[in-house]
Every structure is written in structure tokens, then in C-alpha cells.
TrEMBL record:
It comes from the Bacteria. It holds the Pfam family Arylsulfotran_2. This is Arylsulfotransferase family protein.
Length: 433
């Protein structure tokens, strides 16, 4: 028995048949068991949380302090995107279950999760009412489910079956930048050889055709920043980058940002606590930095050249919550502004989360785990708050995560899609009639 045990250990370490096959079968069995036990109930995954408050809809609206507009958001409970006004009323809704898009034998998703486990994670709206949306499947690996373009009536215009996840961005020329991932098991310096989830940067045409695909792990490993891969935590070797942001750098963003040029993209690697500039044209990393953040999401380049990001676990004042939004100067790494919550309004989202700097200087924040959106002033006061109105689970005490949100000007939409909002005098006249 000792000899058999020793022989088995040698085969596993030396990757001699059938050692690797047995090890992978064991890993697959554990993954299948976890999916069956932990993700059999949709409320047991990470797209539903225990509600922190029973409030629903708009709970704060200081109209003299807010940036008026429409808010586009996605939620963990549905394959839908909602456009709401400042009162929280739904102006338009796009909805298309993933089962109505996926075609068996097309793409890389052989057995997608049931529709209640699939939601729209990210979306972008067009003036005519079209919507590009990214789907994710909870309890699956890879969990990226692809990108779809819908018309205003939620009819499918085109779909991209690549395993797109987290976030997308659209360049002025209409090209779409997405992140995809897939399981690979070839040997990579530092990371060794074991099955892992690797990320790719993909460029799509405006019609959803794949134009370019770059493997980010090996590209980083062949760059001057290769030593960053040595800092991948052991617990993250199975997902060594966990890329969660791609932002196209247009002319306006590049103007005051000395570390990038127009046409490059900003990436965020959560596992490395790194944000980086990547040039799709040369397929090279041109700038990489770390800072005083932990498990970050959604770095945004501001017009003044600063970077605004969601620091998920970087606030260490437990009374305020573990998260914060920070604005920092990338040339000095000085934090020039932050929102940390308060003991009365703790702020915490362990995963997910994003923010948007508005034209009036306020910041729209998606506190995903809290299931709410909030607009805060530069002084840190909450001028507007919207709590997800959906509830579920035992006693309806569970709330779906807020996946993503963006404030939009109503004027950006064609009048055929959204009629212009009546003036106060017109609204008063209509009400009197």
C-alpha cells in the first residue's frame, strides 16, 4: 500500500498518466458538488444579499443638489436593464431572457444556467433606443455569458457568444471593447501548469464581429511588468488577474492624462491590485500602477487627469463600512477626494461596484452589495438615493445586487424613442386638464 501511495504521488507531481487526469477529475467533482450545493438556490449565490433596509425606490431626492437626468441600471435578479427618472419611475425597460438568445451548439456555453441565475451585468444605451448588454451566469465557471444588442423593443439585433464578463465600453467609432475569459491549462512562467481562468481583451465591430483577441496573462508575462505575476496570491492562482474593467481612452480622457494616448484602454486587475494602460494596436502594456486600494473596480479617467475608482476593501473604519470611492492624482498618487460612508449610512460592497463623476461635480455610486444607488456631493452629502425595489427569498428579506448604473441626459435620446420632457409650465397645464 505504501508503494502504491508513493507511485500515485510521483505520477501526480510528475504529471504522468493517470495522475493529472485523476487530479482534474477530482477538481471537477468538487466544482460540480459546490455548484449543486451552493448554487442550487438562486438566493444562496452572490447576486442576492440580505437586505440592509426595507426601503424601496427613491428615498432621498434633494433636487437643488442633484444632476438631473435618467439613470440606466442593471440588477442581479433579471436579464433586464431599466431606465428610470429622478423619482424612480421606469421610463423604459429592456428585457430578454438568456434562454431566448442562446442557441445550442453555438458558442462555448454548453449547459447555461437557468434564466433565474442569469442577469445583465453591464449595458450601454444608444440614442435610438438600442441597447448593448453583457450577460453573466451565477454559479458557473466561466461565468461570462456573452454580449447582445437589442432594439428598443428588446428584439435581438445580434449576439456575440464569447464568454464576456464584467464590463464593456464603446469607442467613438462604434467598436466595442469587452473582456472574455476561458479555462486554460498550458504552462505559463511563474504560474506553472494548472487549470485556471484567464482573461482576454476582445475588440468587436459595431455589428458584433470579433476583430481582435489578446490573451492578457501571457502578454503581461512577456512585458516589462512580468514580475507582477509573481505577486499573484496562492488563493488566486486559479484566476490570476480577475480583470474587471475595460475603459476606452478617448481624446478627452487622454488630454490631461500623461500616461496614455487616444485609442488605448484602461484595465483593472483585481487579483494584482493593479490598474494598467494597454495599447490594442501594439498589444503592449504602456503603464501599470498600484496604490492604496484593495480589490478595486471601475477606475475612470477624469477630465482633469485624475482617476476615480471603487475601492471595495480599502476602508478600514468598520463604523463606516469597508468600501470607499477615491479620486487620486496618478502623478503623485495623492488621494484628493474620497467618499467613505458614515456610521449612520455605512458604505460597503465586498465585490462589484462602480461610480460615475457627474457634470455638476457629484458622484453617482453603485453600492452593489447594498442594492442601492446614491448620488453624493463633493462634500459627501447624499443628494439622491435609490434602493432596489425588488425583494425575494425567505420572507422577502433578500435584495438583488445592483450590478451597474450610469446617469444619462434625457436629451441624448431621439425624440422618436423618448419624447422630450415637458417644461414645468406644460406639466402644470396638463395636470390641470
Amino acid at each position: 500500500m505504501a508503494l502504491i501511495f508513493l507511485a500515485g504521488a510521483i505520477m501526480a507531481v510528475s504529471e504522468t498518466f493517470p495522475g493529472p487526469q485523476i487530479e482534474r477529475a477530482y477538481q471537477a467533482g468538487i466544482a460540480l458538488y459546490n455548484q449543486f450545493t451552493q448554487y442550487r438556490d438562486v438566493y444562496a449565490g452572490d447576486i442576492w444579499r440580505e437586505e440592509r433596509r426595507s426601503d424601496e425606490g427613491v428615498t432621498i431626492h434633494e433636487s437643488n443638489q442633484t444632476r438631473d437626468g435618467l439613470t440606466l441600471y442593471t440588477s442581479g435578479d433579471a436579464s433586464a436593464a431599466y431606465l428610470i427618472d429622478m423619482d424612480g419611475d421606469v421610463v423604459h425597460e429592456w428585457r430578454r431572457p438568456f434562454s431566448e438568445i442562446w442557441q445550442e451548439g453555438v458558442g462555448s456555453i454548453e449547459k447555461p444556467r437557468p434564466d433565474e441565475f442569469v442577469h445583465m451585468r453591464n449595458a450601454r444605451a444608444f440614442p435610438n433606443g438600442d441597447l448593448v448588454a453583457l450577460y453573466e451566469g451565477n454559479g458557473d465557471t466561466p461565468y461570462g455569458y456573452g454580449v447582445v444588442k437589442l432594439d428598443r423593443d428588446s428584439n435581438v439585433i445580434w449576439s456575440y457568444p464569447g464568454r464576456a464578463h464584467h464590463q464593456l465600453d464603446i469607442a467613438p467609432d462604434g467598436k466595442i471593447y469587452v473582456l472574455t475569459h476561458e479555462v486554460v491549462d498550458d504552462e505559463v512562467d511563474v504560474l506553472g501548469k494548472q487549470p485556471r481562468l484567464e482573461d482576454f481583451l476582445v475588440v468587436l465591430s459595431p455589428d458584433g464581429e470579433e476583430l481582435q483577441k489578446t490573451r492578457l496573462v501571457t502578454t503581461l508575462g512577456e512585458s516589462q511588468y512580468r514580475r507582477l505575476l509573481e505577486s499573484v496570491p496562492g488563493l488566486s492562482l486559479w484566476d490570476p488577474l480577475h480583470t474587471n474593467t475595460v475603459e476606452y481612452i478617448d481624446r478627452e480622457k487622454a488630454r490631461n492624462f500623461p500616461f496614455a494616448e487616444e485609442g488605448q484602454v484602461l484595465l483593472s486587475f483585481r487579483a494584482l491590485h493593479v490598474i494598467a494602460v494597454f495599447d490594442p494596436g501594439t498589444e503592449e502594456f504602456t503603464w501599470v500602477t498600484r496604490g492604496p486600494w484593495d480589490a478595486q473596480h471601475d477606475p475612470d479617467i477624469l477630465p482633469n487627469g485624475h482617476i476615480l475608482l471603487f475601492d471595495n476593501r480599502g476602508n478600514h473604519d468598520e463604523a463606516e463600512g469597508e468600501s470607499r470611492i477615491i479620486e487620486f492624482n496618478p502623478q503623485t498618487m495623492e488621494i484628493v477626494w474620497q467618499y467613505r460612508g458614515t456610521p449612520e449610512q455605512p458604505f460597503a460592497s465586498r465585490i462589484r461596484g462602480d461610480q460615475q463623476r457627474l457634470a455638476n461635480g457629484n458622484t453617482l455610486i453603485t453600492e452593489s452589495d447594498g442594492g442601492r444607488l446614491l448620488e453624493v456631493t463633493p462634500e459627501g452629502e447624499i443628494a439622491w438615493e435609490f434602493v432596489n425595489p425588488v425583494r425575494g427569498g425567505p420572507d422577502d428579506k433578500m435584495i438583488p445586487v445592483m450590478a451597474w448604473a450610469q446617469r444619462l441626459d434625457r436629451a441624448m435620446f431621439d425624440s422618436e424613442f423618448l419624447p422630450p420632457q415637458p417644461s414645468p409650465s406644460e406639466a402644470k397645464t396638463a395636470a390641470s386638464q
